[in-house]
Predict the structure.
Amino acid sequence: MERLQLPRLLSDGMVLQQKKRVRIWGEDEPGRRVTVSFLGKDYSEKVNTDGTWEIFMEQADAGSDYQMLIADDAGEEHVIRDVAVGDVFICSGQSNMELPINRVMDRYPEEMARCDNPLIRTFKIIENAEFHGPLKDHKSGQWTAVSKNSFPEFSAVAYFFAKHMYRMTGVPVGLIDASLGGSRIESWMSRDMLAGYEDFLSLADRYSDDEFVKQRLNLNLRQAEEWHNRLDGADRGLKEKWYEGEPDLSDWKEIKIPFFFRDTQLKDFIGSVWFYREFTVGKQLAGKEAKLWLGTIVDSDTVYVNGIQVGHTEYQYPPRKYIVPAGLLKEGKNTIVIRVKVEIGQGRFTDEKVYALFRDADRIELSGKWRYRIGASCEMIEATDFVSWKPTGLYQGMMAPCHKYVSAAILWYQGESNTHETAGNYCDLMERMIRGYRAKWEDELPFIYVQLPNFRVERYGADRDDVINDWPCVREEQRRALKIPGTGMVTAIDLGEDNDLHPLNKEGIGFRLAMQAAKMLYGKESECEGPQIEDVYVERISHHMKVTLTFRCASGMYADSKTDPEGAVPDERNAVKAVRDFELVDEKGRIHTAEAQIAGDKVLLTCEDEMTAVKEVRYCYHNTNTGALLYNKEGFPMTPFRVEI
């Protein structure tokens, strides 16, 4: 049995951190001597009594195509090939960090042709929650260079970050991707980082019981299976095969897609609904393979064209992008049927998305009038217990084994899943995690993170009519985390999509992360952030208020929106763009919209409403903006804020 063992991170294709003493470590027979040979130098250390060893090598400059030999005095050895030296980044968070290129490929079709770069590499760690203590090594992962074959599976944010970092520095980039959709910040934190959060620690203790976890996972499967089976068994549309032929439409009602169920007679409906539409195909498209895009649908759907199933999606988030196979479309009249399952009464066909069938220039619009009929109604599905999201689980199973791998910085894109109970504690949790990670890495690593973007959130109160707005709270907590030394934040209020939790503009995020990293690691002098609030001065004029806001990073400030007239220049934008997202909060907690005027690096706010005092000033303190946003001359947006007076 071979006794000389290496962790998964130390393997072919690895990227080692430049200009730092790099740790090489592993296990072997106690008392043996291990030697690491790299770049013409040998480093040697005796194996400890517990069978572990580690060796620090001298700093090295960036380069590639190296080989490392690790051998012991018993004759065992490992050769690690294709080693590069460059910058290593820990990429963590939830779905917007994890989201692979293949989910945004349609926005970046040209990237596939130019993505090949053997000096951009990723080590993707597969989901693994561990509640018994931190693992010593990962259970999955290997170094992979970006190429046409691997490109679709890369984290989109991490890839675009690496692309722009490499463009600016010419240095190899290593990406350690430890991310998981839906995960909360506390799942990426250790027990010592969560000290004082007794509810989190008790929950972690509960999930350290393997039998309990097994029961919860089995319950998830059983409840979901039983709910779907009950619904399918009661669905009249399945029994009568409404997807075949042309159904009798006398009992089908008319509706326009896209729409939110809450705005129609289907408000609060739970169960299955069938949608039917006829469309005409011309000679050019008949018999050809075509793309069928249906936006996003809540919660799941099955799609039939001319009676044949062409698509199925199990949950709400992925874009519905299906392929209609060759030979299925016929010249003349065709039919499309969509069966939608709604699980908790918040069904929708998301607006401002593409609903169309197309091939090249031939396109058939599918938004507009449809017919619908209820297949069956049922009770709300039981909530899924996402075990991996529980406190400490992902830290111990995915992050802890990274600590010995010397790195340049940490990239973090998370917060969506903490916009509920812990929204007001997010800054404290971030500070605990950042300081905790730096202690574990034994390095004051720069921590660069993404503030939550714009998104028209749908979370309702108990009466099902009140929309809860908690994204602004987390954004403000993230802004306040900038007080922690060595942190940088990407403002993304203009990079989201109001109707999609997973916006497509991942290059914008990656570019802004890279600009922050280039400044923090390389001292690049280019501006990398937008206007940041620095000072507030309030004047009371009669019963009205005038507020002067002073900003840093605000040179050349102008207003802009997503609906710019083509060819508009900054001066023209100032005149035509309405800024409607500044608010004043008075002594009674009432919110007043303020008019804004740009004056150099200042913004002058006026409000004609009567009030005796201003207690707060807010900017973009809603889920999404309602007017134009403010930018500096480098094109970075002002950070949303809430400042108490």
Q: What stands out?
A: The CA atoms of residues 128 and 397 lie 5 Å apart.
